[in-house]
What we know:
Elements: H1 2-24, H2 32-52, H3 60-85, E1 97-101, E2 105-106, E3 109-110, H4 112-127, E4 132-136, H5 147-157, E5 165-168, H6 174-186, E6 195-200, H7 204-213, E7 220-224, H8 231-248
Amino acid sequence: MLTWILAGAAVICLAYFGVIAAYAGLGGGISIWLVFGGLLGAASFGVRYYQKYPDRVPMWIPVSLVTLCVSGGLILVTVMILIFGRIPRTAQPDLDYVIVLGAAVREDGLSNTLKLRLDKAAEYAAQNPDTILILSGAKGQDEPCTEAFAMQQYLLRQGVPLENMLLEEQSASTLENIVYSRLLLEKQEKQPENIGVLTSNFHLLRARMIAEHQGLGKVAGIAAESDRVMMAHNSLRDVLAILKDRLMGNL
């Protein structure tokens, strides 16, 4: 039974890789699903071999692998619970500034993830007209312009006043989004008393933790919906990013 479960999981991973590759292209680290598919396929073969020839496999190998898999699974589930259990149900009103984190911009327009973030930003701006939006994101290698500029143009079409937006066009990661936005805030005449971060729901926990670690105080979170097709991939990637940032001292 375990052999077939592992083999089925491998097929699912490989199929999902194909779906998101067709949907969003080969960037964004989606090859991790090929790796998972290969590892699960190898594990299925290993279990089958061990069941047929138990005397040929030293006991420490299956014990170590089971321990590793169970530990990894528990860590994954725990971090996922933290990510989705701490999403604010409502956005705190009347924030002085809201840092809106960028996402991919393509030649044919904004990625769906970025559109969802900007639609939430436009909604918040309409309800809180005194809030200044800091649009954060540099120009990536395959992007036609900076993410911040593309975000500004989209929000202008949604009716957000130009004077209510500041552009931060240097950052190429979540950490840099926060660091360069903080530096931009320090230059403003109106110093913030309360700050928010707006990003996709799966990304919000890490963004807030980085912001608070960077000295922005208690940061309010505003969660945008996620692209449903990319949800599993983006959530897994953020779990790994949280673990990496914790090890590197960014959180």
